[in-house]
Amino acid sequence: MSERTNEELLKIDKDHVIHSMGTVGDDPEEVMDEGHGIYIKLTDGEEFIDGASQLTCVNLGYSQDEIADVVAAQMRKLTYANTFFGTCNTANIECSQKLAGLTQDGLNHFLYTCGGSESIDSAVRIARTYWRNKGAHAKSKIISLYNAYHGVNMGAAPTTTLKQSVFSSYIHPLPAGYMHVPCYYCYRCAYGLKYPDCGIRCADVLDYTIKAEGPDNIAALLAEPVHGTAGCIVPPPEYWPKIRKICSDNDVLLMADEVMTGFGRTGKMFATEHWDVIPDIVAMAKGLTGAYLPFGAVALRDSVYEGLKGSQVFGFTYSGHPVCSAAAIKAMEIYVRDKLVENSAAMGKYAMERLNTELVDAPCVGEISGLGLMIGIEIVANKETKAPNMMASMGIGKACKAKGLRVRAGGRIAFTPPLIITKEELDKALDIMINIIAAVKPK
Fold this sequence. Notes:
By secondary structure, the protein is α/β, with parallel strands linked by helices. It has two domains: 31-63 and 339-438, Aspartate Aminotransferase, domain 1; 66-337, 3-Layer(aba) Sandwich (Aspartate Aminotransferase, domain 2). Helix content is 35%, strand content 17%. The strands form three sheets. A seven-stranded mixed sheet has the order 4-10-9-8-7-5-6, sandwiched between helices. Strands 11, 12, 13, 15 and 16 form a five-stranded antiparallel sheet that branches. A hairpin with a 4-residue loop joins strand 12 (374-382) and strand 13 (387-388). Helix 3 (65-77) runs antiparallel to helix 10 (322-337), helix 4 (90-100) packs parallel to helix 10 (322-337) and helix 7 runs parallel beside helix 8. The longest helix is centred in the last third of the chain and has 19 residues, at 340-358. It is globular, with a radius of gyration of 22 Å.
């Protein structure tokens, strides 16, 4: 607990800190001070279950002493090393070997970043560099999906289509060379169709778009295996295999944004494993260290790496940082040793069973979807019309917090707790959330 009072800390914060995703000048609301297991404690003494893993990144929960210990040891050994001009460091080399043991076959080469937005930006640059190095200079356009969140820097913002008024409208004009196609949001299908009779029209439109623009002009498709920030929206099982084939047939790189879904979140180490699909490029971050340190990576398939040979690529001051690498090594060890991917799958299945059983008649619930511990609940004003009910959703979020559970509330309630959660802890969280949602009456 801080020696300063909660009020003093809030005052200092207001005087000096600009908050992300907030209105400049608004008063800060709370000060996080401690964390243990799946719980967070504020300076005012309030404690709650972190049912959102904050930004779906605290996969390993709080206060993992093993990670703290290896970080401290690495800091004493080698605080920093750059990766420019052929320089490398032991921790990052061993991190890369460990990571190659977890990624899918052929994804063996890594460029390191400081987080998700940098990983997406890097993936885009790598895709364009790859085609230019092969002499296909016109292959530069990047296609992403509507309803997607991929980041906020100038390389990632043009691929982000979710809530553009929040994430990208104030930095217009955005860079050229980006396109968007409808996503796999079956509950709100862009074509008014119903799965499975739709024939996965959204994937067919991707094929049409690539051919209409000319495959010689398209560098890559970027997509989230499961829409994360949009509220944990799961694609139909045919979607990813179909777009993998479309990309391969049209000589277009397939880039998977596994920043949120990677490292066990969906009950597989990487989400595309659910459909036996191997992307050409994979962006990752959050779970790589479990948010203990800011660290990200871009994984390249062997064929992409070979196509880059002879070209020069960019880098960041902190690429392959040895301290972050040490944290990642230990985090990856914990995922495997403690069977957290399996726990995510089992706890997610149990949560979905409870939610689908106990909220089947809830008048405000339109859809429940999820893979592993990445679960979304669509809140509606009317089940027949599917009219959104943002006010009810936000109210559910506030009511859950008042009862000791934090979730992410938007158009959908996102429930993404740390992967270390036990069945007893999960039941405690679900009891709170289910009772609150079931009590919501339609307007």
